[in-house]
Specification:
DUF3046, DUF3046 domain-containing protein, 52% helix, 4 helices
Amino acid sequence: MRYSEFWELVDEVFGPQVGRSLAADQVLGALGDRTSREALDQGEDPRSVWRALCDAMDVPEQDRWGSDQRRPARR
């Protein structure tokens, strides 16, 4: 996942205003008590940050990837 994809998903899944606020303000234990933005700024993998944010916000798996074109292929 690229950083741009992370931010697109934040906007799509949470909405632009709420999502950006969550990324900046929500401290996540899974990220070492950092916010998503802090973790990304410190080089954390965007996919790991996305999973941590979704887990913390109880986003169901089927809703995590936004539109169908972005969903990962099933194996």
